[in-house]
Specification:
By secondary structure, the protein is mainly alpha-helical. It folds into 2 domains: about 90 residues, Orthogonal Bundle (DNA polymerase, domain 1); about 180 residues, hpI Integrase, Chain A (Orthogonal Bundle). It has 13 helices and 3 strands; from the N terminus they run αααααααβββαααααα. A 3-stranded antiparallel β-sheet has the order 1-2-3, with no helix packed on it. The chain is globular.
Amino acid sequence: MNEVDEFLLHLEKERDVSPHTLKAYRRDLGELLSFLSAYYGAREWSWQGLDRLAIRGFLAHLTRRKLSRRSISRALSAVRSFYSFLHRSEMVEANPARGVSGPKLEKHLPGYLDRAQIQLLFESVEIKAQEGGFTDVRNRAMLELFYSTGMRLSELRGINRGDIDLLSQQVKVRGKGKKERIIPVGDHAQLALRNYEAKRDELTGNRVAAPDRLAFFLSARGKRISVRAIQSAVSGLLDTIDEDAGLSTHSLRHTFATHLLDAGADLRAVQELLGHASISTTQIYTHTSVERLKEVYGKAHPRA
């Protein structure tokens, strides 16, 4: 087993990182190995002998490949983490990536729905759900839960039946690094979830063979719903509001945070609800709120 494989195994078994992060680090370090093979050619090289010049050359290589600044920054983070692992394991004496600066990241304001759009969205979803079909009732429950809690797509998909307590109106989710947190569930979401539970029980009791009795959200075949099916269902509903906006499940997470902050919620409380490790990640939503206020100011103030 080489050093990169040892590092990735360490991340998976001991650090318990998400599968998405593990996949990204494997890809980034594989790219680094390919670059170093070309960079050194026939010359021998070692992790101990690698210097800042080689790391900068790697970043320049990624820039020439026209990778985004965010992807380049993530690759540098992977190299830094890898070298930290080598240093702790006493395989190298120093971390050459520590002193290398990454590209300055652009700040993007996340897409979200305003209150009028949210109202229109749920009115449309409720009309469909009133027909009583399993898929429409389930999709309404998922949409309500996304907006009520701000949870990630992977978190919603991973919910088990025992994670939802509708009596106390709360749900337990497993976030990045499998960190658990409890999130309150609003009245509208509670009602939608109760309606879905009745349809779910009907499905698993009579209509499908060998249903998944652990998962909360199921496909029409009785198995845990897939990521793609959630994306497709939610994106289809969001497209009815604004087809050209490119809204997604993550837009509901942005909407959740923005609406809370607009209403005066504490930033630290929103951080905990979203499951962000750093407050700086949550602060982007304050920019969204400020931009919205600037827009209102510009339209309403006579001397704006």
